[in-house]
Amino acid sequence: MVKAKLIVSIVIRLMLSAVFLMAGTVKLTDKLDENTHEMMLKGFDTYAEMFKIDTLGLNPDQFRVFVGTLEVISVVLLWFVPLAGSFLQVVVMIGAAFIHIMASEFNELALVSVLLILASVVFILHIPVEEAPAEPAEKKTQ
Known about the structure:
Transmembrane segments: 7-26, 76-102, 109-129
Pfam families: DoxX_2
Number of domains: 1
Helix content: over 70%
Number of helices: 5
InterPro entries: DoxX (IPR032808), TMEM35A/B (IPR040399)
Radius of gyration: 20 Å
Membrane topology: Multi-pass membrane protein
Protein name: DoxX family protein
Largest sheet: none
C-alpha cells in the first residue's frame, strides 16, 4: 500500500509541477509566452482594482509577482517538503477560486477545481500517520 501511495503521489506531483511552474513563470516573465503574460498583466490589473490591493501597499504588478513567486516556490517545496508544497498550492487555489468567482470568470473554475483537488490529495497522502501499537502477544497461561 505504501508503494501505491508513493506512485500516486509522484504522478500527481509531476502534473501539479508542470502546471504550477508554467503558471508561475508566465506571471513572472513574458519569455515563455508573451500573449499569456500580457493577459496576466490585464487580469491582475482587474483583480487589484476589484479587491483594492493598494490598501495592502501593493500595486497590480507586485500582486502578480507575489502570486507567481508563490506558485514557483510551491513546486520546489512539492518535491522537498510535499506536505508544505501541497498546502501552499491548496491555499493558492482557494485564493484563485475566490478571485475568479468574484470576477465572474466561471470558465476558469474547472481548472482551478481540478488543481485544488489534486493538491489536496497530495496533502492528504503526506500527512504523517502514527502506526497503531502492535497487539501484545497473548500471555501464556501457566
